[in-house]
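job 3f2a | input accepted
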Amino acid sequence: MRPKPRGQADENAPSSPAGRFESRAQDREPEQDESVSLLAAIAHRLSQPLTALRGTLELARLKAKSVAEYRSAVEKALESADRVAWLLQELRELVEASAPAGERVSVNLDQVTDSVVEDLRPIAASRGVSIESRLDKGLEVQTHPERLHQALLKVVHYAILRSPAGKKVRFELRSVPDGAQWMISDDGAPFPFAVTELSVSTLFAGQSSAGSPGESVLGLVTARQLVEALGGSLTVENSANLGGRVVIHLPIRG
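job 3f2a | predicted structure (254 res):
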């Protein structure tokens, strides 16, 4: 086998740093740790909008264009830049989810839940989706209210993105013997197996637009990190009817 001339690129090698990292991570043994898989997923997700951004700018540079064509190129570039910014924000929140938090306080759960519903109602309305909440009143636990609010916000937002127009997201809070339980259900398509497992491999799946149901699995993974840091659990399952359901359990004392 003849060696490649010095400086000649391997035609099968990934062209971007993100692609090269992803390739190396995928070459590891099956027992590779989750953090490496997550970094590979991050590299994959970031490489897509960056490649689109570079391609748009290269095409705009090749030859003179009309004002309208340049404007269209700039708009496409801004869309890609917005997607990168969105992904970086999600990744920052994922990292911060594992950071130590302050002192736990007594939190009224139905008030936190109502706050999440009010925050997301305008987004749901813009997509033709309604939110139906059923809450057991007076539930309190010792926890971190900001992190709990953030976790619930991400899960309900994910359900809104999955729901077809004209359908509803059901947001239930109920008392259980050892704490509190939320069930967030939607009428979207059943979850694929990878999503119910909340595997980092799910970050490679999904649509390409920022905030799409596939890409927002990253937000669901962050929510799981937040809930587990509070001493609780988050599971994803398919409901008996069409649609998916996320179940969050939080003990009386996290």
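job 3f2a | The beta strands are 105-108, 130-135, 140-143, 168-176, 179-185, 233-238, 244-251.
job 3f2a | closed
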